[in-house]
Design brief:
Rossmann fold; single chain
Length: about 90
Amino acid sequence: MKNKAELIFIPAPGIGHVVSTLEFSNRLIEQDDRILITVLVLKFHSSTFVDASTSLTADRSEMTRKAMIDGGSSFHSIVQLIQVMIDL
């Protein structure tokens, strides 16, 4: 039985970061089937483009999990956002 390695990616909010992170995770999985990747995506109320980009790549790999975290309007600075990510 092979040991699996789990990686967790938390891209910065924005279409460029989310899509490139999902593409990178899919390429990693293609290289090694022992890798399990979780991508945590912060979902803000005005981020319909993030929803669209994650749904486009949702069926690409069963070894990539996507988790949406509601960011709402509770973050007043990037420092607060990063601190919450670290605490997860």
